[in-house]
Amino acid sequence: MKKWTSVFGKVIMCVCEIIVGVLLLLDPLGFTAGIIKVAGALLLISGLFSTVKYFKMDPVEAQKEQGLVNGLCYILCGLFCVFHTEWFIETFPLLTVIYGVIILLTGIMRIQWAVDMLRMKKEQWYLAAIGALISLILSGIILFNPFSNTIFLWRFVAVSLVIGAVIDLIVLVFVNQNLKQNKISDETKIDKTETDKTDLL
């Protein structure tokens, strides 16, 4: 059950990466603006929650947590994100750096995945290693930004996300097939052992 949950979580992450990549490819401005507004809304909700919590707490305890300061800061940041989305859109290089860092982090996660598979002696570890290497190379290109055209950079980011996710899905398919084969092999061995015991009796 735990293995199935782990695989399912990785599949969900891959699907989300593909969706983000496709949306960026279709409409980088609109998608990024939407993400910023959603982040702003979440900050507003968090700020309101912290502010309300501050006034409901005991004054001495509330003073220690500084809930009012945190709440007001979250609210201000949230309002800025919601009502000044164009400021973020104008700072394209900063946003591409953020996407580049995300791809870099997923690449580091894939290194962990590849090493785990190698230590467990799974044959497809090299596929995960290839995925990690590609992610690191793509994130490096994005972070150093050798492109003169901003739209081309956004498309490169989108394609990078999709490529990394597709490689991960391929690895998951192979790993899942191996798990099924090992399970069938183990069941066959158990059946054979039980048959041998019955014959002896």
Indicate how many domains the architecture comprises.
1
Measured on Cα atoms, how large is the radius of gyration?
A: 24 Å
Query: Mean pLDDT across all residues, rounded?
Result: 76
Low-confidence regions: none
Q: In this structure, how is the largest beta sheet organized?
A: none
The residue fraction in helices comes out at over 70%
% residues in beta strands: under 5%
Helical stretch tally: 8
SS-based structural class? mainly alpha
Q: Based on CA inertia axes, which overall geometry fits?
A: globular
Helix and strand succession? Answer: HHHHHHHH
> Separation of termini?
36 Å
Provide a descriptive summary of the structure in words.
By secondary structure, the protein is an all-alpha fold. It contains eight helices and no strands. The longest helix has 51 residues. 24% of the residues are buried.
Topology:
Layout: H1 2-26, H2 28-56, H3 59-65, H4 67-83, H5 85-90, H6 92-119, H7 125-144, H8 150-200
Helix pairs in contact: 1-2, 1-8, 2-4, 6-7, 6-8, 7-8
Top keywords for this entry?
201 residues; mainly alpha; 0% strand
Quick synopsis:
The protein is mainly α and 201 residues long. It is 91% helix and 0% strand. It contains eight helices and no strands.
